[in-house]
């Protein structure tokens, strides 16, 4: 396939030969004229050997590789990649009568860098994180409707906030296939409203599904505090697990309304649950030392870029220290970081420092990560972003 060419500096093809899917701008020696953001390009070594094809964009990551060799990036390419991702989810047993919410495409982890697709029932929510995927979104939507089982009836495009702002692509959120029918999805037998129109990310955090199931096993007869609850996922798993009481906290009034709606969907008129629209640090400072014996800390990313790493680690330490100070003796703490810039070791050190600061004896019961429908490309370890610890606090 004839695409415009990008030629690398000598020796800069080594990471690509190990199948790492990014070409950094500093690795480029020559570039054809008139290449525009989102174009399909062919990448060549300094000696003139074609390495593969990908999407070009302006920035430190100049090319996101899609193929190795000369395969075309066309309609068939997108269908085959989506079909392969779909087959993996089937083998993971995520398409069941009691579960119709999962991630179908996780960027580099599914060999489609710059693309995220979450499934909620018959609706796919598609997010482009690169100009190339933005320009291909109609092809991708068409391929989704061709998947086996006629699974996808609606495709909602939600990329206004995920595309590089410098590209000035002016993406518009909206349905590109079908239309709104219902926003209720099912995860492990529990129902929830998904706000893909105005909510965060694609409308729900499917990456915590396995960790919510684990929490359910610890919830019986416990007093549960779900901080940064968003739409209440951990809360209604705790209720199904037999929690004595569950309190959900988020700074967003809209998130609290959605949490209450989700609890009502599953546990109508259940007085074990209360929700509070309040700042997390403020709420934790007001509670007593025996109010809760199971606390979930699942904050938004404190560090979206390396430049914010130092402040993020301070934030994690302060937040966990406050929880350690307040949790009842014999309590369980589920604590997470979804900051890609924060490594597992850095997060654990921040939590350990918090435990020492609070002078509590702490045991690690589980070390958690993202679920199997958020796979990590073995050649792209940067794809591991979710870190979690389950701690027993004396």
Which structural class should the secondary elements be placed in? alpha/beta
The CATH class name of the largest domain reads Alpha Beta
Assembly status: single chain
Strand order in the largest sheet: 16-15-14-17-18-20-19
How many individual domains?
A: 3
Portion of residues in helices? 25-40%
Distance between the termini: 63 Å
Give the biggest sheet: 7 strands, mixed
Describe the 3D structure.
With 394 residues, the protein is an alpha/beta fold. Strand 8 and strand 9 form a beta hairpin. The longest helix is centred in the last third of the chain and has 18 residues. The protein is globular and about 70 Å long. The model has no long low-confidence stretch (mean pLDDT 94).
SSE topology:
Layout: E1 4-8, H1 14-17, E2 22-24, E3 28-31, E4 40-44, E5 50-56, E6 61-68, H2 75-91, E7 101-106, E8 115-120, E9 123-128, H3 131-135, H4 137-145, E10 154-157, E11 174-177, E12 184-187, E13 190-193, H5 209-218, E14 223-227, H6 233-240, E15 245-250, H7 253-266, E16 273-277, H8 280-286, E17 294-297, H9 309-326, E18 331-337, H10 344-358, E19 362-368, E20 387-393
Helix pairs in contact: 2-4, 5-6, 8-9, 9-10
Short description:
By secondary structure, the protein is of the alpha/beta class. 27% of the residues lie in helices and 27% in strands.
């Amino acid at each position: 396939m004839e695409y415009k060419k990008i030629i690398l500096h000598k020796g800069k093809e080594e990471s690509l030969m190990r199948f790492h899917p990014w070409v950094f701008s500093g690795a480029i020696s020559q570039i054809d004229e008139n290449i525009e953001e989102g174009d399909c390009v062919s990448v060549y070594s300094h000696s003139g050997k074609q390495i593969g094809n990908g999407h070009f964009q302006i920035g430190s990551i100049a090319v996101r590789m899609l193929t190795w060799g000369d395969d075309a990036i066309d309609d068939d390419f997108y269908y085959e990649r989506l079909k392969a991702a779909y087959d993996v989810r089937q083998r993971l047993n995520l398409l069941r009568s009691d579960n119709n919410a999962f991630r179908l495409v996780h960027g580099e982890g599914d060999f489609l860098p710059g693309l995220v697709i979450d499934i909620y029932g018959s609706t796919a929510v598609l997010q482009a994180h690169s100009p190339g995927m933005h320009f291909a979104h109609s092809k991708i939507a068409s391929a989704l409707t061709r998947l086996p089982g006629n699974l996808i009836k609606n495709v909602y495009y939600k990329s206004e906030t995920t595309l590089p702002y410098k590209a000035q692509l002016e993406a518009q959120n909206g349905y590109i296939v079908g239309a709104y029918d219902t926003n209720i999805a099912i995860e492990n037998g529990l129902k929830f409203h998904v706000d893909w129109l105005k909510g965060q990310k694609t409308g729900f955090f499917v990456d915590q599904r396995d960790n919510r199931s684990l929490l359910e096993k610890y919830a019986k007869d416990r007093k549960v505090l779900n901080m940064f609850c968003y739409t209440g996922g951990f809360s209604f798993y705790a209720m199904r697990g037999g929690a004595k009481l569950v309190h959900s906290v988020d700074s967003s009034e809209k998130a609290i309304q959605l949490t209450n709606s989700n609890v009502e969907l599953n546990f109508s008129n259940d007085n074990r649950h209360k929700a509070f629209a309040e700042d997390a640090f403020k709420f934790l400072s007001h509670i007593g030392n025996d109010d809760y014996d199971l606390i979930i800390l699942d904050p938004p990313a404190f560090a979206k870029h390396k430049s914010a790493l130092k402040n993020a680690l301070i934030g994690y330490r302060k937040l966990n220290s406050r929880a350690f100070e307040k949790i009842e003796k014999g309590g369980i703490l589920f604590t997470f970081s979804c900051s890609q810039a924060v490594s597992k070791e850095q997060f654990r050190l921040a939590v350990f420092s918090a435990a020492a600061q609070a002078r509590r004896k702490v045991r690690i019961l589980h070390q958690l990560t993202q679920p199997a429908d958020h796979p990590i490309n073995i050649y792209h370890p940067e794809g591991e972003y979710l870190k979690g610890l389950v701690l027993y606090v004396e």
